[in-house]
Amino acid sequence: MNNKKKIFQSVLPATVAATIISMSTCSMAADSDPIKVGVMLPFSGVYAGLGESTRNGLKQALKEQGNSIAGRPVEFIEMDTEAKPARAPEITSSLVDNQKADFVIGPVHSGVAMGMIKTIKGKDSIMIIPNAGANAATGAFCQPNVFRTSFSSWQTAFPMGKEAYDMGYKKIVTMSWNYGFGKESLEAFNESFTKAGGEVIKEMLVPFPKTEFQSYLTEIASINPDAVFVFFAGGGAVKFVKDYDAMGLKGKIPLLGSGFLTEGTTTAQGPAAEGVITTLHYADALDIPKNKSFRQEYETLYGKPADLFAVQGYDAGQLIVDAVTATHGNTADKAALIQQMEKLEIDSPRGSFHFSKAHNPIQTIYLRKVVDGQNTVVKVAHENLEDPARGCKL
Ligand code: PHB
Question: Domain ranges in the chain?
Fold first, then answer.
């Protein structure tokens, strides 16, 4: 029996409706209570597209299991974070303390992640971060009950510093939104670029989520650096890449980025994205059987191509499936679940990975180039890169 119900709650302020979607393929019995999965993602605002992809990927992994694990149905409780850090403690607490969620999946935005981690610390729910890269999440603030299926800020930007220098660029301007993830990405780029012998001649920070880039681009044109390295994502990345082209900088000053600049955005960016070079732990065209089958199934389910955010959501779903299967459906003993999660090898579309001691993926970072609207692999930038997990005491 496929039992599907939708309940709208008013746990949170008027702008947010909590959607409880309960899906079951077997009849409810006392020993088959639902596994509760809280989902905290941006379904509105500049990161809405990222939230949707993440949710799609997560649901795809559970659909493959008939929405049940070890005989227990899975219940999703969805909350819109709006990518607003101030909302994080209240929503997390409602999922953890009121709903008693077994797992909380989220968020996309690093500021939201830090609020969630502070609230979930020491609680009986397991947080799986499917995107936010804040170094501290698996660094100084690492927790036994916090895992990440995505990346650290450091991991995605550090390899590009050396790659940029090796491409012959010596003087670079860096630019990002002015918040944790962006600043950490620029720092990581700077770390390896300077070590290789390059110089960051100007760092530009734009208030989040502002997308008026014209004055910054005018300044870049007058500085005329060898290249520009940026972090923007979602709607901001679309606008930035198009503005860069429209202002006549494309073709004159090469544009580099951490891979989010061209993830899930190339269709909207159109010809402006062609030739943009980035580093990331995924590429659409990765020649891995699991990637091909994942992308095909995603396209069938959702009618559009998958992106990295979908992969990370899918892997959060796979992590739940594999861990709960290993405990034969027991989610009451969280220490046992965590022990299983620490041992797992995740069969990801990016290539299989396992977790570091700090619970962050150890994974390969690729140098990519947009060709015909696709992120293609130029080469491996760093094989099996592990985040240094600075300050983590796990
Ligand atoms: C973050 O805030 O950590 C973040 C947001 C969007 C991305 C990547 C990282 O695409």
Answer: 2-31, 33-151+286-359, 154-280
Q: How far apart are CA 175 and CA 181, in angstroms?
A: 12
Find the 210 Cα to ligand 1 centroid distance in Å. Answer: 15
Q: Is the CB of 48 under 6 A from ligand 1?
A: no
- Asked if residues 104 and 128 have their Cβ atoms less than 8 Å apart, the reply is yes
Q: How far is CA 69 from CA 72, 74, 110, in A?
A: 5, 7, 30
Whether omega before 361 lies within 30 degrees of 0, making that bond cis, reads no
The Å distance, Cα 273 to ligand 1 centre, comes to 19
Does the domain formed by 33-151+286-359 have CATH 3.30.980.10? no
Do 154-280 and 33-151+286-359 fall under one CATH topology?
Answer: yes
Burial-class residue 28 by CB neighbours within 10 Å (0-12, 13-18, 19+). Answer: middle
Q: Find out whether the beta carbon of 363 lies less than 6 Å from any atom of ligand 1.
A: no
CA-CA distance, 355 to 344, in Å (whole number)? 8
Q: Report the nearest atom of ligand 1 relative to the CA of 263.
A: 10
Ligand 1 atom with the smallest distance to the CA of 111 is: 2
80 and 16 Cβ atoms separated by less than 8 Å: yes
pLDDT 10s per residue in the chain (394 long)?
333 323 333 233 333 334 444 443 333 333 689 999 999 999 999 999 999 999 999 999 999 999 999 999 999 999 999 999 999 999 999 999 999 999 999 999 999 999 999 999 999 999 999 999 999 999 999 999 999 999 999 999 999 999 999 999 999 999 999 999 999 999 999 999 999 999 999 999 999 999 999 999 999 999 999 999 999 999 999 999 999 999 999 999 999 999 999 999 999 999 999 999 999 999 999 999 999 999 999 999 999 999 999 999 999 999 999 999 999 999 999 999 999 999 999 999 999 999 999 999 999 999 999 999 999 999 999 999 999 999 999 9
Task: Residues 154-280: name the CATH superfamily.
Answer: Response regulator (3.40.50.2300)
Any idea which residue has 């544009």 for tokens?
255
The SS3 of residue 75 is: strand
137 lines ligand 1 (CB under 6 A): no
Return the structure tokens found at 307. Answer: 């992106």
